[in-house]
C-alpha cells in the first residue's frame, strides 16, 4: 500500500526582519526618508510663517505710521481752527472799536 503524503499547510510566515537584511535596510531607509521629509516640511512651514510674520509686521508698522501722521494732521487742523477763531475775535473787536470813530 502506498503511503499518503501530507500536503504542506500554508502557515503565516514567522520570519523576522533579521532574516532579510535587505528588507530591513529598505524599511529603515523609508523611515529615515519620511523623517527627513517631515523635518523639511516643518522647516518650510516655519520659514513661510516667519516670512508672513515679517510682511504683517511691516504692514502694521506702515499703518501705525499713517495713523500717527493722520493724528498730527488733525492736531494741526485743530490748532489752525483755534487761531482762526482768535483772529476773527480780534477783527470783530477792532471793528467794534472803530465803529464809534466812523462818521455817520
From TrEMBL:
Residues 1-21 are annotated as: Disordered. It comes from Knipowitschia caucasica (Caucasian dwarf goby). This is Uncharacterized protein. It comes from the Eukaryota. Residues 8-21 have a biased composition (Basic and acidic residues).
Amino acid at each position: 500500500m502506498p503511503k499518503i503524503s501530507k500536503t504542506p499547510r500554508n502557515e503565516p510566515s514567522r520570519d523576522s526582519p533579521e532574516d532579510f537584511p535587505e528588507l530591513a535596510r529598505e524599511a529603515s531607509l523609508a523611515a529615515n526618508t519620511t523623517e527627513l521629509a517631515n523635518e523639511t516640511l516643518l522647516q518650510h512651514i516655519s520659514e513661510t510663517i516667519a516670512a508672513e510674520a515679517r510682511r504683517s509686521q511691516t504692514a502694521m508698522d506702515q499703518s501705525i505710521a499713517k495713523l500717527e501722521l493722520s493724528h498730527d494732521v488733525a492736531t494741526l487742523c485743530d490748532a489752525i481752527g483755534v487761531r482762526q477763531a482768535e483772529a476773527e475775535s480780534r477783527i470783530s473787536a477792532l471793528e467794534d472799536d472803530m465803529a464809534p470813530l466812523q462818521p455817520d
